[in-house]
Design a protein that fits this description.
Helix content: under 10%
Shape: globular
Number of strands: 5
Radius of gyration: 11 Å
Strand content: 35-45%
Distance between the termini: 5 Å
Largest sheet: 5 strands, antiparallel
Length: 63
Amino acid sequence: MMHCPNCKSKNIGKIGANQYYCWSCFIEMTMSNGSLSLHQVEEDGTLTSLDDLFEAEDLQAEM
């Protein structure tokens, strides 16, 4: 089972093809080539990348 690299919650929902959402910390994740890209959803609906806050090994997808 997948867990959120930010809050470690397993409360993850699938919102699209290779796109997931953490319902605990409200982070959107996109999977590409076995690695996650994390984004914060802003009030206006835009996404802000959070990848620079994590080490590469933290963003490896763990299913």
